[in-house]
Amino acid sequence: MDAVEKANAARQQQWIKDRKVGEGTYAVVYQGREATTGRKVAVKKIKVGQFKDGLDMSAIREVKYLRELKHQNVIELLDVFSSKTNLNLVLEFLDSDLEVIIKDRTLVFLPADIKSWMAMTFRGLEFCHRNWILHRDLKPNNLLIASDGQLKIADFGLARDFADPGYKMTCQVITRWYRPPELLFGCRYYSTAVDIWSVGCIFAELMLRIPYLPGESDMDQLKTIFRALGTPTEDDWPGHAKLPDYVPVGQFPKPPLRDLFTAASADTLNLLSKCLVYEPRKRITAKDALSHAYFFALPYPSHPSKLPKCSTVMNKPLDEIDANVEVASDPGAKATSKSLKRKLASPTEAKARSIARRLDFSKAPPSSP
Amino acid sequence: MTSNALDSPATTDPKETEKRQPLYEASTQFRNWRFSPEGLAQIREKLNEAAVAVIRNTFEVDQPGSSANVAFLNANEEVVLVRLYVTKISQLCAMFRFPEEVEATAISYLKRFYLKNTVMDWHPKNVMLTALFLATKTTNNPISLETYTSHIPKTAPSDVLDLEFLVAQSLNFEFTIWHAHRALWGIWLDLQSLPDMTSNLEPSIYDAALNHIRASRLTDAELIYSPSQIALTAFSVAAPELASKWAQSKLTPDGTQSQLSPDTIPPVLGLIKGMVLKEGHVPDVESVREIDRRLRICKNPEKIVGSKAYLAKQAEDERKVEEKRSKKIFEMQKGQTDPFGDEIQTKNLVDYDDDDDDD
């Protein structure tokens, strides 16, 4: 055996897969642990054998960027190894995500909790942007939550680096509800501002507890945005009518944010509105957001360990794609998770599954940690 | 990515680390792919020795005494052969009109690959094709494998894909490369915004510097020096005065803040310049041909399809797989005949999900 193969085999030995927690067309996710320490991990096994062009782009992107990024608020890639025709990514184990928490009606969010999640999101994102990486798929379901409450940005399958302006990029990125208007208008030259728009939508969703701009189609998405924030004028956003896919979608007045976010403080609404500025160049940057008055005003952000947590531990797949996104450029982008959803849709189902498991005699009793 | 911090990595003062770490120093390139010239030589020597020992042994098992007259390649000859294939990558990139980033990335991959492998196991003419194909994907310039191989004579898609995992593993799955030509671009942009820029910034200066950087790709420079060091060297060869003007502009007024100082820059530039002058050219074709001729005799027989050693290794591998499979089947059947489980298992049963044989 070659030295390289031996090294790979040694790595493989280090990680033990305990149970499958999700399966999609292109990837299977296992919960597992490190052999020597027992540390919990998630192993994402990407089936490469079926791609006629070899390692697929989303796997390559994820590995490429996570190999370089080390930050408290970015998911950590612990190891990578291959097994026959599979690529295995060993990731830190995170038991929940922001979508699950938002949807859990039993939880109450204090303004300080929302501030804490926002601070962690902006910290992680500022680090990505500082490293010249656009995430391009921010949404609550890609913000994972560790057991100590730390929020981690995950799923870099659509990420890319950016450097020189004037480099053409695809506009078919970001899940629709979180996609900024410039991409919906077919803009091929864009930057960090696209991620900021998504964060703005997440910010609003944390307050509303339902998605802020849930468009039903790309066209409806624009309408939904304009209905909420007013149709942009040439003054608001110079040149937008010249973008490739520009279409007039009707004139909507601009209602005050206060009408919808009745309980929010002035600082809160100020930061939110700066994330949702139409003109991408005037949208706030992650760096500036971190020094926004919102984060320095009372109440201070909750300590991560004090944040609301889900009562039910979910069998969350790491990588789930929403039904409302079509990622045109990467057919193999993700674990398409119709099957995941069916299996793991609700906490009750997760509970039912664990009961079923208890009746399964072939399984070992839970071993002591 | 441009990196213009000319910081040499020698020591890190704890006080320094409290300051924000320069981006380049957090990269896998900085952490895992920088060597001293001596360290590099040592890695290659060891790799070469180990490979020769293994292959010699394989020869002897096949037929005792058969390795006595084989002239194995030495580490230097391996480097020369790889260098020839670096130039082939450039030729292919020109044909495909790939961006500079693809070419530079593929070249880095090829060099890194041979810090973990020997040409006697894997011939660079194959590895080069896989490294280039992988680089098109990692730099976000993908083309279909079919298009790729249809433009390369005598190459099937499987020739490229069969080595993809091996190449990716050898790179430790670290795909990001910091390139000197990006650092050069940074210097060029900086110069345009210097306040007292009076002289003309002729594009020919940039082009000349870029050519020096291209020459440096044939050397070990990128495995020893930072992209910014290589870029400044290239620029100082093309336009010495502009280069020192740029370097001056990067010095802090009191000169204490960084390790960048007028005393430390020139010696490093001299070393890189010497290296590029000495090795930054296409190796002599005749001598490479001689190396390649000997390689045909001394390459690892286990890697030659159809050879006795190859078949033996294949049979052994298959036997292992078969053993694993029958063990798994046995465990499964055991599970089935015992639906209620007489005794409580204290150990996990075999994990049925953990099948690596993909259907």
UniProtKB/TrEMBL annotation, chain A:
Gene Ontology terms describing biological process: positive regulation of transcription elongation by RNA polymerase II
Protein name: [RNA-polymerase]-subunit kinase
Family that this chain belongs to: Belongs to the protein kinase superfamily. CMGC Ser/Thr protein kinase family. CDC2/CDKX subfamily.
Record's GO cellular component terms: cytoplasm; transcription factor TFIIK complex
Chain sites annotated for binding ATP: 21-29, 44-45
EC number: 2.7.11.23
Disordered, as annotated region: 329-369
Active site annotation, chain numbering: 137
Source organism: Macrolepiota fuliginosa MF-IS2
Domain of life, source organism: Eukaryota
Cited PANTHER family: CELL DIVISION PROTEIN KINASE, CYCLIN-DEPENDENT KINASE 7
Automatic annotation (TrEMBL), chain B:
One record GO biological process: regulation of transcription by RNA polymerase II
Keywords annotated in UniProt: Cyclin
Ranges of compositional bias, category Polar residues: 1-11
UniProt xrefs under InterPro entries: Cyclin-like_dom, Cyclin-like_sf, Cyclin/Ssn8, Cyclin_C_2, Cyclin_N
Gene3D superfamilies assigned: Cyclin-like
GO molecular function: cyclin-dependent protein serine/threonine kinase regulator activity
Residue span of region Disordered: 1-22, 322-359
CDD domains assigned to the protein according to its UniProt record, in alphabetical order: CYCLIN_CCNH_rpt1, CYCLIN_CCNH_rpt2
Record domain Cyclin-like: where: 87-169
Family of this protein: Belongs to the cyclin family.
Protein name listed in UniProt: Cyclin-like protein
Classification lineage: Eukaryota, Fungi, Dikarya, Basidiomycota, Agaricomycotina
